[in-house]
Design goal:
The chain is α/β, with parallel strands linked by helices. The protein has 9 helices and 10 strands. Strand 7, helix 5 and strand 8 form a beta-alpha-beta unit. Helix 3 packs parallel to helix 4, helix 6 packs across helix 7 and helix 8 packs parallel to helix 9. It catalyses: (7,8-dihydropterin-6-yl)methyl diphosphate + 4-aminobenzoate = 7,8-dihydropteroate + diphosphate.
């Protein structure tokens, strides 16, 4: 399948400040157009594809397929953060993630690599192996050392909202106004990161669909997604195969691909610019149609 990326990342990319996401390794992404992060789960227990790519060779082959389908970013994860998931020891996460990042960096030098981790040790090792982005579900709250790592190395950073740790976050989540509460969270954490030494142009914001949210919370976030544009940073969205599609459409995990693609296209119209997807090819079709109709 041909590479459908319209604007591959470069070291000298320009764009409006609100659209530009500066990454590690001298890279940047212009997020004025939709970007896709393909999911490479190197775990036995992820909710959607756990175990399918749990060894290095299978994960690298999967990453190659996602890149060929048009992924701008490959997001490698070695610990499931689904609701109720138990933590993984650092040594196990390193053994899963670092060889995959190193192999992908060698095999696909034109693709940006991201690592989905909240651990300082894993983030530092992944950056050394070739990652340019740290995708952190914890907002630097689970491992205090992570803040030091991202401020020292200055990778691209995904600032995500979660209401507690995966093992507890779905226990009766409550909000006053879910969108305004998350917006206040982002404002506080962006200020914290900036004070600590990570420039705002390294950060994108992810409202954390499914992380400490009931179905009604998730739908309200998606309806009012454009509210987060006031922050002046690109919006990163992890919708792929999430439980919200089970709740509102009664779809089992294996049958949520079409709903994910449609929702991603709709959310593009509401300001989402980086879409974290399992099925990159299907997502690219939906996003391309949305862009054509919006032109």
């Amino acid at each position: 399948m041909p590479d459908t990326r319209r604007n591959p990342p470069t070291a000298a990319m320009t764009g409006k400040s609100a659209d530009l996401w500066r990454l590690g390794r001298g890279l940047a992404l212009d997020c004025a157009t939709d970007r896709v992060a393909g999911i490479v789960n190197v775990t036995p227990d992820s909710f959607s594809d756990g175990g399918r790519h749990a060894d290095t060779a299978a994960a690298v082959a999967h990453g190659r397929r996602l890149a060929a389908d048009g992924a701008d970013i490959l997001d490698v994860g070695g610990e499931s953060t689904r609701p109720g998931a138990a933590p993984v020891p650092l040594e196990a996460e390193l053994a899963r993630v670092v060889p995959v990042v190193a192999a992908l960096a060698e095999a696909l030098p034109g693709v940006v690599l991201s690592v989905d981790t909240y651990k300082a040790g894993c983030a530092a090792a992944a950056i050394e192996a070739g990652a340019a982005i740290i995708n952190d579900v914890s907002a630097c709250a689970f491992d205090p050392g992570l803040l030091d790592v991202v401020c020292h190395h200055k990778p691209g950073y995904v600032l995500m909202h979660s209401l507690g740790r995966p093992e507890t976050m779905q226990r009766d989540p409550r909000y006053g106004d879910v969108v305004e509460d998350i917006l206040a969270f982002f404002e506080e954490k962006l200020a914290m990161l900036s004070r600590a030494g990570l420039p705002e142009d390294r950060v994108v914001v992810d409202p954390g669909i499914g992380f400490g949210k009931r179905p009604e919370h998730n739908l309200e976030i998606l309806r009012r997604l454009d509210r987060f544009l006031v922050l002046g940073r690109p919006v990163f969205l992890g919708l792929s195969n999430k439980s919200v599609f089970g709740a509102c459409l009664n779809l089992p995990v294996g049958e949520r691909g079409l709903a994910t693609a449609v929702a991603s296209a709709l959310c593009s119209g509401r300001g989402a610019r980086i879409h974290r997807l399992h099925d990159v090819a299907q997502g690219r079709v939906a996003l391309g149609l949305a862009a054509a109709l919006a032109a």
